[in-house]
Design brief:
Elements lengths: L2 H4 L4 H25 L1 H4 L8 H8 L14 E3 L8 H9 L5 H28 L16 H4 L3 H19 L5 H18 L1 H15 L8 H13 L2 H8 L14 H6 L7 H20 L4 E2 L4 H13 L3 E2 L2 E2 L1 H16 E2 L4 H39 L8 E5 L7 H5 L2 H5 L2 H6 L2 E2 L11 E3 L14 H6 L8 E5 L12 E6 L3 E6 L1
Parallel strand pairs: 6-7, 6-9
Antiparallel strand pairs: 1-8, 2-5, 3-4, 9-11, 10-11
Helix pairs in contact: 2-6, 2-17, 4-6, 5-6, 6-8, 6-16, 8-9, 8-10, 9-10, 9-12, 10-11, 10-15, 15-16
C-alpha cells in the first residue's frame, strides 16, 4: 500500500463516497420494489414465461414420462438459450419454476445493474438521473416474457461498462475477457451480442482528442478482435427461416421501454418518461455525456430502421428500444445541486410506486386465471395432444388485446404431461421439437376457425382447447365432447 493510499480521505472524497453509497441504496431499493409482487403473486403476467417454464420440464425426463414420447430435445450450438442453459445448470438445486422465477428476476435486475455500471463508468461516479432506470422494469421484453433477450441485454450493458472501465493497455486481459463475454452473450441471445458489438463500434468510431491516426486505427482493429469469438459463432449459427416472419408495428418500439399489458399504456408511460428527461435537458439540470452521444444516436437509428420481425424473432426494433432507454438514462449526468438530487430521487420513487401499483391488479388477475385454468385442465389426460384455437379476430376483444391467455395453454405440458400446440418448438432456433414432425405445420399461436376448416388436424390432435375469455364464442365443429370449462377456455375431447 502506498503512503497516499494509507492516508485518510479528504472530506470532499469522503462526502462523495457517502453520497454514492446513499444513491446505491436508493437504487437497490427501487429495483427490489419492482420485484416485490413476485412474493405475493408467484406467476408474473408474462406471455412467454409459461412457454419457458414448459420447455424446462422437457429436460431430464424419466423414460416413462408421457412427454418423452411427445417431444425430443436437441441441444446444439444455437443462440438464445439463456433460460434453457440456466435450467440445465441449476436443475440439481432448483425446480423448473424456481429457475423461471430466478430468470424473471434476472430480466429486471441485470439491465438495471448494467445501467448503473455504465453510468458509473461514463461519469466516474453514479449520477442521480440513473435513479429513473428502475421505472423501466416492466418493459416489453419482461412483460412479453422475452427473458433470454432481457437477461442478455443486462449482460451486454454490464460488458459494455467493463469495456469502458478496463485499462486499454491490458490487451491480453481485454481479448480474453470480452471474447468470453461474446460467447456467453451469443448463447444467451443473439440480439444481445449484436447490441454489445454495436455499442462498442459506435463508442470506438470517433477519434479521441489528441489521438494520432495510428492509435485511432489500432483501436479500430483491436475492438472487433475482442469480440471475434461471437462473430465466429454467428457465422456458423443455423440459418433463420425468414418464412416465419410475422407482421410488426413501429408502435411497439415506441411503447417498448414502459410497455405493461397494453400498447396504449406503454406509449403514454414512455412519453411521460421522455417528457421528464426532456424537461431536465431543457432546464439544463441534466445533460448527456459527450462520449455517449454517438452510441445513443446510433442505437436510435437502428431502432428506427430495424424490422419489427424477422424469422422466429418478433419485436426486433422494440427490444432494442428498451436497451436504448436504459442506455439513455445511464448516459445522463446530473442534477448536481442538492435540491435537484432530492427532486430526482422523489420522482424516481413516485414513478416506481406508480408502475408497481398499476401492475398489481394485472398480477392478481393473471394468477387467478392461471389457478382456474390449471384446475380445469385436470380433465386432460397425460399423453394427450392438445390443439388450442381462438375465435375470429374481433369476436372476443379481450383475447385479441392480450397474449397472456394463450400462454396459459402451455400449463398442459407442465401439469398434465401433454403436448400443447402453443409450445414454441422447432421453429427457428429452438432446443426442443415435437416428436411428430407433422405438427410443425400447426401455428404456435392459436389458429382461427378458418384454419381448422382447411387443415386435417383431427388425425394429429385428440384434445381441443377453445380460448374465448368471457365471450360467447365456441367452435362450430362436429365430434367434440366438452370435458371442462373456465371463463377463459372450453376444453373438448374428440369423439
Amino acid at each position: 500500500m502506498t503512503a497516499e493510499a494509507g492516508r485518510p480521505q479528504a472530506p470532499s472524497a469522503a462526502a462523495a463516497a457517502v453520497a454514492s453509497t446513499r444513491l446505491g441504496l436508493i437504487y437497490a431499493a427501487l429495483v427490489a420494489a419492482t420485484l416485490a409482487p413476485l412474493a405475493i403473486w408467484p406467476i408474473p403476467p408474462s406471455f412467454d414465461l409459461v412457454n419457458h417454464w414448459a420447455r424446462l420440464t422437457l429436460y431430464h425426463l424419466a423414460p416413462d414420462d408421457p412427454l418423452a414420447a411427445l417431444y425430443q430435445v436437441r441441444l446444439t450450438p444455437i443462440p438464445d438459450l439463456a433460460v434453457d442453459l440456466a435450467g440445465l445448470a441449476l436443475s440439481p438445486i432448483l425446480t423448473p419454476y424456481g429457475v423461471i422465477a430466478l430468470a424473471w428476476g434476472a430480466a429486471i435486475v441485470l439491465p438495471a445493474w448494467g445501467a448503473w455500471l455504465v453510468g458509473k463508468a461514463v461519469h466516474g461516479a453514479p449520477q442521480p438521473a440513473v435513479l429513473l432506470a428502475p421505472a423501466l422494469a416492466y418493459n416489453l421484453a419482461v412483460t412479453l416474457g422475452l427473458l433470454n433477450f432481457a437477461i442478455g441485454m443486462g449482460l451486454a450493458l454490464i460488458a459494455f461498462a467493463a469495456w469502458l472501465t478496463i485499462d486499454r493497455r491490458r490487451l491480453r486481459l481485454r481479448l480474453a475477457l470480452f471474447n468470453a463475454a461474446a460467447i456467453v452473450l451469443f448463447f444467451c441471445h443473439l440480439a444481445a451480442f449484436a447490441a454489445l458489438a454495436l455499442l462498442v463500434a459506435l463508442y470506438e468510431a470517433p477519434p479521441r482528442p489528441g489521438e494520432s491516426r495510428r492509435a485511432w486505427a489500432a483501436r479500430l482493429v483491436v475492438a472487433p478482435c475482442c469480440l471475434l469469438a461471437g462473430f465466429a459463432l454467428w457465422a456458423f449459427a443455423p440459418p433463420i427461416d425468414s418464412r416465419l416472419s410475422g407482421p410488426g408495428s413501429k408502435l411497439a418500439a415506441l411503447a417498448a421501454p414502459m410497455y405493461d399489458q397494453t400498447a396504449a399504456a406503454g406509449v403514454v408511460a414512455t412519453l411521460v418518461l421522455v417528457v421528464i428527461v426532456a424537461a431536465g435537458l431543457l432546464m439544463r439540470r441534466v445533460a448527456f455525456a459527450p462520449a455517449m452521444r454517438l452510441p445513443l444516436v446510433g442505437v436510435a437509428a437502428v431502432v428506427a430502421l430495424a424490422p419489427s420481425a424477422y424469422g422466429a424473432a418478433d419485436f426486433i426494433d422494440a427490444r432494442l428500444a428498451v436497451l436504448l432507454a436504459y442506455l439513455a438514462l445511464a448516459s445522463l449526468q446530473g442534477p448536481s445541486e442538492s435540491a435537484g438530487k432530492a427532486w430526482t430521487a422523489a420522482l424516481a420513487v413516485v414513478l416506481v410506486a406508480a408502475r408497481v401499483g398499476l401492475a398489481a391488479p394485472h398480477w392478481a388477475a393473471y394468477d387467478g386465471w392461471a389457478a382456474e385454468f390449471r384446475e380445469a385442465i385436470r380433465a386432460v389426460p397425460p399423453g394427450a395432444r392438445v390443439l388450442a384455437v381462438a375465435p375470429p379476430m374481433g369476436r372476443c376483444p379481450a383475447l385479441d388485446a392480450a397474449d397472456f391467455y394463450r400462454g396459459l395453454v402451455n400449463f398442459v405440458v407442465i401439469d398434465r404431461r401433454a403436448l400443447a400446440s402453443t409450445l414454441f418448438t422447432g421453429r427457428g432456433m429452438q432446443p426442443v421439437a415435437a416428436a411428430d414432425p407433422r405438427l410443425d405445420a400447426t401455428p404456435w399461436t392459436p389458429p382461427h376457425p378458418d384454419w381448422l376448416a382447411s387443415h386435417d388436424w383431427r388425425g394429429l390432435y385428440d384434445t381441443l382447447i377453445a380460448l374465448h375469455v368471457d365471450c360467447d364464442w365456441r367452435p362450430d365443429e362436429a365430434g367434440l365432447a366438452r370435458i371442462a370449462e373456465t371463463p377463459q377456455a372450453t376444453i373438448y375431447r374428440l369423439r
